[in-house]
Amino acid sequence: MKTKLYLALFCVAFFWGTTFLGIRIGIETIPPFLLAGIRNLISGFIIFFYLLFQRKLEPINPRQFLRAFILSIMMIVLANGLTTYSEKYITSGLASLISTLSPFFVLILNLILGNEKLSIKTTLGILLGMFGIFLIYQNSLSDLLNPEYRQGVFAILIAVLMWAIGTIITKKGSENSLTMLMNVSVQMIIAGIILTAIQFILTPTISTESWSLRSVLAMVYLAVFGSVVGYVAYSYLITQMSSTKVSVLSYVNVVVALFLGWLILDETITSRIIIAASLIIGGVFIVNYKKVK
Length: 293
Fold this sequence. Notes:
- The protein is mainly alpha-helical.
- The protein has one domain.
- 77% of the residues lie in helices and 0% in strands.
């Protein structure tokens, strides 16, 4: 059980950290909502056919479909779709920075709903992580004042809020719900259809001739590792841990995004960044650490 849990933690922390770069590459030549739509259709049908061959497909009643539809709108159409859209106007680094507000949104909503009590440990972990984020992106915060970034910033703020609400709904669960994989597959297929339709409404004429191989490969990577591996791992974690603790993994995503920037884009890693990364990882450890009885 612990091995499965740690593997899921790694998948969410690492692969979702790579998605900001993947999205940035994908939207170089592919319209954002179409990128998100095709990505989710691919991943949704991968899981669907896996369940089909394993003979694990389930009948869906109206109540189960409605729940999957609501979560699909919140966590994929709005959260994933608007995140993808935002990177047309803001850098992947700034997008990953704003996404770290997710633990705050989840924690505040949980406190309002009475689902969690604020502990010193959780508060300290979140504050350490946020301070680490501030050190990394201190120079990028001025971008928020630039008018050309405002549309992108607003889009990803809505995305993070919708993700937080969807996370809490997922954690709460419901009786007679679908199995995790079936639920994820239905959500992705619904979202893929809606996101693709949105793009065709915005731009009825779309030419694939301008799509670069680089962008197409990024889309396939996002579908397999960002959606299938990452989202399935996240859905599993949310059944095993509190929603606040799982959301804190977004801090690690930023460290991964930072490393990829250094590896692929030749960005400089300074001593301040090393200290910041240590604070972020330390914050995640404090929130999730439990004494062995």
